[in-house]
Amino acid sequence: MEELAIFGGKPVRENKIFYGRQYIDQADVDAVAAVMTSDYITCGPKVKELEQHLCELTHAKYAVVVCNGTAALHLAALAAGFGEGDEVIVSSITFAASSNCVLYAGAKPVFADIDPETYNIDPASIRKLITPRTKAIVAVDFTGQAVELDEIREICKEHDLILIEDAAHAIGTKYKGQPVGSLADMTCFSFHPVKTVTGGEGGAITTNDEKLYRHLMRLRTHGITRDPEEMVHPTDALWYNEQVELGFNYRMTDFQAALLLSQLKKLPAFEQRRKEIHKRYNEAFDKMPELILQKEIPESDTTWHLYVLHLNLENLNCDRRQFFDALYAENTCPQVHYLPVYWHSYYEKLGYQKGLCPNAEKYYNEVMSIPLYYGLTDDDVEDVIHAVKKVVAYYTKLK
Ligand SMILES: *Cc1c(COP(=O)(O)O)cnc(C)c1O
C-alpha cells in the first residue's frame, strides 16, 4: 500500500489544489479594462445590461444587482418585511449569511433539518416548525441542486409564507426545466470567486413582483427615491430626491458588472465542465462501501457548485478530521460545507442549542467538499480520485 503523505509518504501531487477557484481569461480582463476609462465606473450601463442579462437567463421579470450575495439576502429580508416577532425557517446546513439576513432584519431564524440523502432543507422538517409567527422560508439550493420547490411552494401557499431562495450555489440550475431565479418570491445569487461565475464580489436578487422590485431598488440606494409617486413631498424640481426609508449603499461597480457579463458568456462551458467533473467523481466513487453518493432528485438539472465527499464511517477506521487531514496532505485540499449554522458561537450565545437538527449534525461530521471548478484539468481530477482512494485504502475496515 502507498504510504500516506501525512505519515511521510510522497503526496499524490506537488502543488496544492483547493475546492474552488475562479476562472478569468483575457476577454474578462479586456471587458473590465474597457469600463475603467468609460464615463461610468459605477451604476452605469453595464449594471443595467447585467440586470437585463440575468432576467433573460433566469426568466425572471426583474433583477437587482448588488455588491455581494449577503447584501442580496439582506435586501430580500427587508423587502419581505421581516421584523420583530417574525420567525423565518432557514436551512441548517448553509453559509451563515442565509440566516444572518433574518437577524439583520430583527426577526428570528428557526432552523430546519436537512434531508439526509439530498442534504437540502427537508420539507417535512419545515412543516413541523410552522407557527402563527412564521413569516417566510429561506431555502438554499445546496451544492447547486434545486430544493424541492413544488412541495416548498405548496407549504408557502398553505400558510401564506414568503419564499426566498438562496441560489448562491445554483446559477444555471433548472428545476423541471425552469431556470432557478423565477421560481421563488425572491431568489438571491452570489458572485464570489468560488461560485460558478464571479465579479470579484457581487450579488443579485431576481423576482417577478414589481412591488418587491421597486422596493429592492430603493433599498439598494439609501432608501432614496427619484420617483414622485413614492415621495411624501413630491415636486417637479429636477434636483430633488427624497429619502423615504432607511436603506444602504449596496451598489455594484460597472467594472464588476462588465466582468460578470463576460463571465456569463462562459456559463454554458462552466456548467458543462462542472457536470463532467461531478460525473467523473460519481463514477469513481460509486459502489465504494466507504463512501456515500449524494442523492440527485430528477427534477433538478444541476449546475454543480460543490462535490460532497460523504464518508461512510461505519466502514472506515478514522473520523472525518483524520480523513480530511490525510487528504489535505496529499495536496488535494478539501473544505467542509458547512458547520450547522446554529453551532457558531454567536448563535450559541443567542440561545440555540446542539441537537436541534440531528441529520444536519450527523452530516457535518461525515463530509468534506473536494475540488470542483472549471479550471481543473483531467489530470487534476484523476489526482483527486487517486488521493481519495489512497486515503480510503489506508483507513478501510474492509481489508
Ligand atoms: C456565498 C454564499 C452566500 C454569500 O454570498 P457573498 O457574495 O459571499 O456575500 C450566501 N449563501 C450561500 C449559500 C453562499 O454559498
UniProtKB/TrEMBL annotation:
Protein name per UniProt? UDP-4-amino-4, 6-dideoxy-N-acetyl-beta-L-altrosamine transaminase
User: Per UniProt, which keywords does this protein have?
Assistant: Aminotransferase, Pyridoxal phosphate, Transferase
N6-(pyridoxal phosphate)lysine modification, residue list: 195
- Cited Gene3D superfamilies: Aspartate Aminotransferase, domain 1, Type I PLP-dependent aspartate aminotransferase-like (Major domain)
Family to which the UniProt record says this protein belongs: Belongs to the DegT/DnrJ/EryC1 family.
Do the record's keywords include Membrane?
A: no
Q: What is its EC number?
A: 2.6.1.92
The Gene Ontology terms for molecular function here are: pyridoxal phosphate binding; transaminase activity
Q: Which residues form the active site?
A: 195 (proton acceptor)
UniProt xrefs under InterPro entries: DegT/StrS_aminotransferase, PseC, PyrdxlP-dep_Trfase, PyrdxlP-dep_Trfase_major, PyrdxlP-dep_Trfase_small
Name the Gene Ontology biological process terms: polysaccharide biosynthetic process
| NCBIfam families assigned to the protein according to its UniProt record, in alphabetical order | PseC (TIGR03588)
> Which Pfam families is this protein grouped with?
DegT_DnrJ_EryC1
